[in-house]
User: Fold these one by one.
Assistant:
Number 1:
Amino acid sequence: MNRVATVEQLAINTIRTLSMDAVEAARSGHPGTPMALAPVAYVLFRERLRYDPERPHWPNRDRFVLSCGHASMLLYAALHLAGVKQVGPDGRPTGELAVPLEAIRQFRQLHSRCPGHPEYGHTSGVETTTGPLGQGVANSVGMAIASKWLAGYFNRPGFDLFHFRVYALCSDGDLMEGIGSEAASLAGHLQLDNLCWIYDDNRITIEGPTSLAFSEDVGMRFASYGWRVVRVPDVNELGCLRSALAELDRPSDRPTLVIVRSIIAWGAPTKQNHHEAHGAPLGDQEVRGAKAFYGWPENEQFLVPPEVLEHFRQGHLADCHQQADQWYAMLAEYRKAYPDLAAQLDCLLKGELPEGWDAEIPSFPADPKGMATRVASGKVLNQVARRIPWLLGGSADLGPSNRTELTFPEAHGDFSVTNPTGRNFHFGVREHAMAGICNGLALCGLRPYAGTFFVFTDYMRPSMRLAAMMGLPVLYILTHDSIGVGEDGPTHQPVEHLAALRAIPNMVVVRPCDANETAEAYRVALQRGDGPT
Ligand SMILES: Cc1ncc(C[n+]2csc(CCOP(=O)(O)OP(=O)(O)O)c2C)c(N)n1
């Protein structure tokens, strides 16, 4: 082995052993998948993702989503080795590491930067909260759409401000979940060539082998969604992994699925390839055995060889740092060339609304019959959207009923591969993915809205709850909220939904009873920068 190969293996084994040690110390957690996928984290965080550890909020950074959030130690180990800095509440790096070694020692303990599942806003470098399987991949579709939309709206000749890619790492569970299929189907339809999912095909879930319940050909399924499918027969073949990911650099009109075969808990003497290694500490004997297999000192815990840190931080990451410098210099020039657009971008990135955004919210005259609130909603939405260019969204195939369409010319019609500045989205009949995608859009600074009948929030609730948890300003436009919907009958009559949504912490639920209350509801919702309405 030459020196580079040695330090590569050392780096990969550092990710593995940190993960095992953290789970042992916590006496709970998921060691098997980080041990298996350490080569993926290594190649992504050291060679492929464009991000600047000094400025984790660089707007044009590539996004990484760990959709299988239970493998959180994989992400924490990578953030530690890459030296990603923590960002304070003011949006500036605090100078300290986002994941110091001490935090890894405190894995899964209260207030640690390394909670059991990654939490957005808590640990810099964590792009979204994951844990409920399937949510992360849906978020990644929203982020990839956001990249296209931001590019369409803000980029100008000579100012290629936005072109980031989105990578999501997902497990069998993510791809068994319906939301994963919904999101993949829409991503294929939209031809999101900036999106890459890396599927950990380890054929193990909690109850045992996937053959218990999952026997489709995932590659064929994704090919039929319109994805490019690439295979890596062995995750430990770094060359193969690298060339699979390099496929992304070849022009395509498809998102990419990289199917990686791995063995859970690779290297553990008796637990490798066994479902017991999924969600419980391996135990001292297995850990020692695995360390011996890796050629690692068995008595050492939380060992990070200094040459690994050095290796991680040179080369590609030094290059990315320079790219971020150049990006900020370009932004300074952009400010001079396009001051209005630059002011809008600043506003968007700060999570603020343009001045006078609510100046045209109408006031409706008294009317004995009363305008239907959904009609008022459509009018108000169109008024405020005129003044908030990054307010965008759509419905799960109920646009005409929900009145969610933006009809004025500056809304640029429907979003599509040929019309990336379009602000009207057709999510199809995919409520769950719609809500997950809106979270991804909001995570990139946009102000998304999602429409459907109130009763169908049943299909969106997990993503709505995560929006509330992450403090994302997503707007839900939910019509037909009454049990008096008439001929459609009880399937369409929401009875418990109001109470159910009001029970979600940090979800604001407004139920306007006339046109003017609807207008005020918009004022309340859009002013909220720190949670969904
Ligand atoms: C929506 C949802 N359902 C159930 C779970 C509980 N859970 C965590 S991991 C997992 C499956 C594990 O299998 P896989 O996704 O293949 O992950 P791996 O074992 O390869 O790490 C389940 C059912 C969850 N986190 N989210």
Note: Residues 3-322 form a domain with the Rossmann fold fold (CATH 3.40.50.970).
Number 2:
Amino acid sequence: MPKTAAVVGAGIAGLVSAKRLIEAGYQVEIFESTSRVGGLIASANLGGHQIDIGAESFAVAKNTVPELCAELGIEQLIVSPQRSDARILTSGGAHLIPHGVLGIPSDLDDPAVVDVVGADAVAAAKQLDSAAWNYPPEITIGALVEARLGRAFVDNFLTPVIAGVHSSDAMTLEAATVAPGLLAKAAELGSLVAAVGATRNSAARPGAAVASISGGMHRLVSALESHLIKAGAKIHLNRPVESLADLNDYDRVVLAAGIEGAAQLFSDLAAIRGVDAAVVALLVESEQLNELPRGSGVLVAADVEGISAKAATHVNAKWAWVNSELPPNQHILRFSFGRNGILPADTDALAALAVADAAKIFGVDDIRVVESVTQLWPKALVQSGPGHSVIVKRVKAALAADSRLAIIGAGLGGNGITGILSEGR
Ligand SMILES: Cc1cc2nc3c(=O)[nH]c(=O)nc-3n(C[C@H](O)[C@H](O)[C@H](O)COP(=O)(O)OP(=O)(O)OC[C@H]3O[C@@H](n4cnc5c(N)ncnc54)[C@H](O)[C@@H]3O)c2cc1C
């Protein structure tokens, strides 16, 4: 009799786990509570274009996703952004995000840094970042950057980027979780800026920090789904698992049910906090947007008044495959909501808020909206506050004693696809 495995959740973590289990000789069944696979990787139809309405890229700090694509025979679909020159919008105007990690620069003499914080703040940062390295392992990324570089670097660079990526405040997130490896590297080199430079230089793909799939990230999910079906996996849609005890007949069980779903089935995970996010995509017409006034997009700093979104991407400026589908003067703009995990009270009005934000964020006044699509993502992003890594260690210790159960994703591997898949190896 072949060994059997049950996978709970058909997001990217569950699908990849299923693939690995099949490779290890298991007969695999996947249980998914909704009517589709992919979880937070999802597409939506916007004016006839199938666009990503959840995750839209993956980090290239590690080679995990490209390796998976190669195994699926779709490595030729991997694309780098055609532009990665996103801006940060503060009450003082828009400025470039410096080359680095999470807005922490890899070079303090970069004009994108000096022009924003000024020469005095740069000189002070150089001094701060040469001090002895001695920080507790649970230090937040905000406290770390403030200690090493000064408050101006937190407010102008780190906070808007962290809000855009993690929907949380930089002062609440553990550095060890949001920038894995950076603390250890910085301790080794004695400098945060040097560690950022080393991290970027060691990325699996040079250049931009992220890559995507031509046609959208959802094509990766479709390729995985087809591969699994061919390999004999059974995918049961609309089949929520109510209790792990219902899976006692399987030799192995992988819990890959996202942050909220996994916590409902494994109570030790309940201490991991999931926060809300939402995405609005607009198909618009505008001649002024042809000039790509904000490069690939904008992260909105918390001090900017009158804007509800925390970030916006000029999708066709960033991804050539989207641009190639659009007629002249048409653009796709994607707005992210949920600063610090809190959505505007009236979520039915998100599209209207995005329309109102568009002109202010992109600095244009000729936008005509053709169509919009809104997607809410409740409890979707992990808020890895102080003590998060202690919870992760505790869960992992409990799992180490259990040879049947594994947990992938669910807040244990951070927010990104690359982190989750690297963790799940
Ligand atoms: C708006 C947004 C943008 C993002 N952008 C990026 C990005 O650009 N790059 C990046 O790397 N990451 C991004 N992320 C994060 C990334 O999408 C997620 O970290 C990743 O997709 C999570 O995968 P997962 O399989 O662990 O969980 P999920 O995708 O949440 O999948 C879990 C699955 O389990 C199912 N499930 C839950 N409970 C049960 C149950 N009891 N029984 C059966 N099934 C169950 C759910 O329906 C779901 O399909 C983004 C997230 C959001 C919300």
Note: The chain has 16 helices and 19 strands.
Number 3:
Amino acid sequence: MSDLTVYLESDARRPELRTADPALMAAHLAHIGILFERWNADTPLPASADANAVLDAYAVPIGRLKDARRFCTADVVRVTLQTEGVASLRAKFLNEHTHDEDEARFFVEGAGAFYIHLDNRVFRVVCEAGDLLSIPAGTPHWFDMGATPCFTTIRFFGRPDGWSATPTGDTIAARFPFFGPDTAQAA
Ligand SMILES: [Fe+2]
């Protein structure tokens, strides 16, 4: 189930807030400039759907978001334990970083957790199938796909050359619970 957990950045053990109510999640996240929406597929999506079928199924909300947020492209990424280099991929996204454009992801299947570092707090958003999350440019954040990654997302880009990130150098991610069945803190 999708959920939002809010921590003080100085205390990863006692959350200030936890909710799985999509309307409350959207309201809390909107307050800090984060877009959270639930989307429905216009047509049923078979498990074997390729990238074009995924993009076709969500063509209406994809078009709406691209127009509203000036994204020029969208693609589909699928990550599983069998994905080449999956361990280094997880480690890369676990480092807190920023982007010079909004990071928008729609979860078609599976799940993962975004951690947004704002206002001396960490907002942990577990996203599952049907969730759209958009993090504004310049916002420190990290992403954990978990120890057994399994997700498919639509990624949106404002420029054709795609994903690039700037590490903040902050090791805060290591102090917060990882995503997955084993959510033990690192230290
Ligand atoms: Fe990112």
Note: The pocket of fe (ii) ion is lined by residues 97, 99, 103, 141, 143, 165 (CB under 6 Å).
